[in-house]
Design goal:
Chain lengths: 255, 244
Amino acid sequence: MKTYFRNFIQFLGGTTLLSIEVFKELWTWPFPTKLTIEQIYQVGLKSLPIAFITAASTGMVMALQFGLGLEKFGGKLYVPKIVSLSIIREMGPVFTCLMLAARVGAGITSEIGSMTVTQQIDALRALGTSPIKKVVIPRVVACLFSIPLLVAIANAIGVAGGMLVGSSDLGLDPQFYMQKIFETITLTDYFSGFAKAPFFAIVISLVACYYGLNVEEGTRGVGSATTKSVVTSSIFILVGDYFLTKAFWVVEQWL
Amino acid sequence: MALIDVKSFKKSFRGKTVHKDISFSVNKGECLGLVGGSGVGKSVVLRSLIGLEKADGGQIMIDGEDITKFSESQLTHVRIKVAYVFQNGALFDSLTIFENLAFPLREHTDLNENQIQEKISEQLEEFGLSGNENLYPNQLSGGMQKRVGLARSIIIGPKAILYDEPTAGLDPYNTLKIQEMILRMKKKGVTSILVTHDMPTAFAVCDRFCLIEDGRIKAQGTRDELENQKEGYLKKFIDGERGK
Ligand SMILES: Nc1ncnc2c1ncn2[C@@H]1O[C@H](COP(=O)(O)OP(=O)(O)OP(=O)(O)O)[C@@H](O)[C@H]1O
Ligand SMILES: [Mg+2]
């Protein structure tokens, strides 16, 4: 228990310091453009399939569940509303980011972790360069750029998946379905979900970089660091989601 | 004048004291051998000299500046002056050999692409590595990786070089190659510190030795001085190493 507590404090301190350093070095010249573009390819483009599959199946399953459930009460016509609203506000951003915490987070931690173990991170420092700038910033910026885009794509796919099931299995007219979506969803709805993406992107990338840079005890450490990275960022996404939802809700009241 | 001067250096990790009181100095152009058993903290001393580890106490003077309080960005110019050769080369495995060697040049010099190309082929030639430009580190043998690591460390012309077990795990041919390179750098007037268990190499290249034991410098001097010492620390150490 005591070690858990100590590790947690160490993690909080470590990630805070890391974010400060990232923020400081972000504005110093030159920006690592080439490395960042490489990471956008790794993080963004290569995650498209997983974001696609996650979103499509979420949308389809939800349409099916609500359709079957509401049919008993004659509420099938509410499916477009409910499904698209829950995807846009909640399921799209959170499920996509959870999957990305696994794919992208694990990738970043294991890659940086093996660089740490093989002294490549030390070598960057010894050659008079900054691992923050060469390794961390490209990944954080790439996540911050790609993950919201992936979420936007996932939102669209998820809603489309719902519509597909709605028309094929529930017998709802696609035109009616579409019309309902546009009637229901407001810009506020959209942004209250979408705006979570940048927060999750920062969590995923910073947590992953932190665990990668702090690998201990050789190659075996890379495995356990990767596990910790995925578990930690998933928990932060799930718990953070509650607080973000609440915060956005307060903001919505003002608007 | 001493290029590297360490005074009462102290270091511990999470309550475990590794160094209590380490003091030694290295003059310009000199090669110092840092020897001691496994785990006495030779790498820790070497890493601290360029600020890869923060000292808990004492002074580390590099070229007249105390670097112990330096920030990462202040350490940059120290690290350009003092190169570090890592035990296993520490090559960037996502970059080719050429890109590995180009890395410090691109970071710290204004050379254009042609000049970089020229400089790298020259360097590879000198290290007997020509023709490997486009390979990745994992396509090279351990010995070659170490040589590339050495080449990368010195390509921008440092004043001093720190070698961490440059010959560990190498066959006699590669060991000899590394020895030659260290001697060549020494001839150019570069100051060096060599951490090693390989006493033949140490005797071949070093002018003076420091023996670390139990967090302190147990003995220091030239080979003759140490061999004639009545406590015979060096002899004990060498016999111990042979016994392993
Ligand atoms: N980052 C670190 N965290 C905790 N302990 C460390 C760290 N670095 C070194 N140590 C400890 O310091 C001691 C000295 O390590 P060091 O690697 O300097 O030994 P060495 O003399 O270079 O040994 P070898 O000949 O095996 O390379 C070891 O006991 C090691 O456990
Ligand atoms: Mg060592």
